[in-house]
Structure formats: structure tokens, C-alpha cells
Amino acid sequence: MPGFATRAIKAASRVPAAPQPPINVPIYQTSTFEVASALELAELLEFARAGHSYTRYSNPTHAALEVALAELEGAEACHLTASGMAAAHGLVLSYLRSGDEILIPRAVYGGMVGLARSVLARAGISARAVDTSDADAVLAAIGEQTRLVWLETISNPTTAMADIAAIAELAHRRGVAVAVDNTFASPYLCNPLAFGADAVIHSTTKYIGGHSDLTGGAILGSGERVAAAREIVINAGGNAAPLEAFLGLRGLKTLALRMDRHSANALAVAQALEGAPGVAAVRYPGLASHPQHALAQRTLRGGMAGGMLSLQLTGGRPAGERFLDLLGVAVHATSLGSVETLCSHPASSSHRQLGDAELAEAGLTPGTIRVSIGLEEAEDLVADLATAAAGAAS
Ligand SMILES: Cc1ncc(COP(=O)(O)O)c(C=O)c1O
Questions:
Q1: What pLDDT sits at residue 352?
Q2: Whose CA is nearest to atom 8 of ligand 1?
Q3: Which letter, b or e, does each residue of 9-39 get, where b requires 16 or more Cβ atoms within 10 Å of its Cβ?
């Protein structure tokens, strides 16, 4: 009879049969899977047979969320990643090589600027910022080396919107692909592939997770595109984790309900704060005053515009910093897309290196506050944010 340690390891490795399927997908918290032959392992590592070999490549919990997200985005395939930035990195590099150029929005999530400067530049790939709220400006910017146009359905943090269908049509005529970061809209409010985009990424950290308790990302598109991006993610080690995939699945079940409420709360706050003391402007695609309001009505589900808005305070940089100290309901924290309302001041945080002129280039003012509206009572949020705006100005 084998010794105790041997028996303990064997005994504790037996996977139970589960004749009644669990309601929730189990967390397959394992880094590796037993195979029956060298050929089986070789084929699994090449994705030439169904199954799993090693969690950096694939995992059943990841697969469950991948299939669900692909269905909800209308994509052929999906690959999960460690973060939204790992998804952006894998997808961008699947399109580009040394000498190529990517066009990115002038108002873009700061992480994309970081990716361009710290990773793409080293690989000889250049990035150029364009006003992606103007399809003709994007077309005019496409040059000999341009291979990819990067869009955000709704931009972080200005809420500027890109006309995905118009840009995809123009870019495709020039043989240039279009990838969309659909994080702010989520698959509930918009499906960029249906508007002609070639690929989509999400930071699942945000609305898909929805509770500020996971970090993850997803790449979606054709089987061929996702396989190309997956190869980069696997080799760069940007894989997802089973617990994060489980939390993503849990979040997905309530995504629609949450987005309805985020959108209703954000519209109520945007309407109440437009013209309120201390507020120079409110940027929210659901407001008639938003430059792309008509596009939002046309392309986002039911005209709902999600939970992200930006407030431009009258008192500039000092007012932006004071505003955060005056919050009682909303929380001063980075990130977005969660049940709690989160506020940040880009000029003193994500965009702190930029002077006023550079902020203006990115569509920001020194007093811009980014607000991720949560699921609290709308009237409590209106009172909290209005009080902080008025107090910050005085
Ligand atoms: C629009 C957008 N895309 C991508 C990311 C990156 O996501 P992650 O932090 O999961 O890497 C963020 C993060 O804030 C974001 O706001």
C-alpha cells in the first residue's frame, strides 16, 4: 500500500462526478490538467483538439465566460485576459508590426497612451492621436503605414463618441482595420461588431464584473483574429484567472439590470447638474447638449447612455481637488462601472503630467471630474454631487 503522503495526494485529487449540473459554473482552480498521451498534450497546446492543458492557455471557467461574451457581443470567438490592458495589448499586437501605425482617439483611456509609449514605441510601432468623433478626420489621418484605427464606443473620460459604422466603412476602403474598446457601453448597450468593427475589447473589470472586485479583460472578433491575439496573450503571459472568470460570469447575469439603472441614475444626475452652481458643463451622451447625442440615440440600446459622465467645474484645478474632499455618498477612487459611484479628477491623477493646453487637446479642462454613476438612489447622488460642486466653487 502506498504511503500516507502518496495516498493523501491521490485522494485529494479525485474530481467528483456531478450528475446534477450546478447552477453556477465551478471555479476550476487548477493550473494544469491530466492528459492521456503526449499526442493529446501536443494537440491541446496547439488548440487542435477540444479540452484544456494548462491555464495560461485555457481553462473551463474561462471558456464558459468566453462563450457567453461571444454570444452577447455577436462575435465568433472570445479570449479572456488578465486585464483590459492585456486585451488591448494582445489585440493591437495581433495587427501591428515594426513600421506600422495605429490611430488612437485624442480623448482616450490613458492606459492606451501608456501602451503606445512604453510598449508599442519599443517595437517600432507608432501611434497618432486623431479626433475620432469626426469620421472624416479619421479618414484624412489614415496614412501609408496606418494598419489599425482604435476607437472607444464612449471615450474615457470625455464621453465623446465615435461613429463606428461610418469610420469602419471609410477605414475598410483603405484596407485599415477598426478595433473598438467597448468597455463604457458594455455588450448590453452596444455591439460594435454589428456596426462593422473588426474586433472588440472589454475591460471586464468594469461593467461586466460590476462590483469592483475583479480585474480582467476580453478580446472578441472572428475566430482567426482571436486566435492571433490569443497567441500573443499566451506568450506574453497575460492570461485570465479562474476566480476572475467566475466573478465575470456572476456579473454578466445582472448586467442588463445594472446598465438600466446606471443609465437612469446618470441621466437624472446629468440633468440636475447641468447649469447647477459650480458646474460649467456636464458631458453625458444622454443629454441633448452632448455633441454626439443623436449618435447615442441611434447606436446605444434604447437611447440609454450608460453610467459615465464628466463634470466641468467652474473653479478649475483647485475646485477639482476640493470637490473630491466634499463627497459623502460618492467615493473618491479610480476605476468605474461598479455598484458604488466613483469620482476622480483626471488633472490631478490619470492626466497629472499634462498642462492646461495638453488637457484641452485631450478634451479635458483642469476642473473636469470623471463620474462613474453607481446604483444608489438617484436623489442621494444628485444631492451629494450638487453639494460638492457648489462647495468646491465657493
Ligand atoms: C475604457 C477603458 N479601457 C480599458 C481599461 C483598462 O482596463 P484594466 O484596468 O482592466 O486593464 C480601462 C480602465 O480604466 C478603461 O477605462
A1: 79
A2: 84
A3: eeeeeeeeeeeeeeeebebbebeebebeeee
